[in-house]
Amino acid sequence: MTANYKLYKSNGSGTKKYYAKIHYDQVMTEEDIIDEMIKGSPFSKEVTQAILCRYHDIINDAARNGKQVVTRSACYGLDIKGVFNGPTDQFDASRHEVVANVQPGLDFKAVVSSGVPIEKGEPQQKLPELDVYTNLYNGSPDTELSTGHHARILGNRLWFDVNDPQQGLFIIPLSSTGILNVNDAVKVEEFTRVTSNEIVFRVPDDLFPGIYKLEVRVKYGKRNLYTGELEDVLTVI
User: Coil, helix or strand for 61?
Assistant: First the structure.
């Protein structure tokens, strides 16, 4: 198995530079990890699941209570967003926010630094390219969709006819096995900006907690519908 990457043109005006981005062919969920763990194991799936749940609960509780948690795969901690008005100022929930801070752990760093097999993927022609997602809500993580608030996508060939029901930006839920539930796709209806390189939109209020992918569907000409998706998986809390 190899890690595939694709090259994308930078959005800077007049630039001829390209940047690489890893292309994920599969999303491996916790369910997939458990299925791998129980192969040849004396422990049942239920027992393994319970152990993992307890493991994660301890990490979350410790981090929530101000401890830095260091594991093989990741280091968990907290950050505070917002500006303080001098040394005597105190935390104010209306101006400040506590956010998660997760960094790669030593084992994961070692695995990556020891060498990752890389292969260049073939460029896809004429497809919308969703390169960068930004959550615009009050410093919220760019891994989340904040319902009822705005977000931005940068890329290429993003413009679509907002009046065409087949075209647009769609939010598609992922199953626990990483399969796209296309039939449950939610079409975004509210936009602040739609251009070839940028989409600013309001995340619908009625998204259920879970994991999602963003997909843009565009027509070139009268018939052909082209689809591009954001590689990153996004979460609704």
Answer: helix
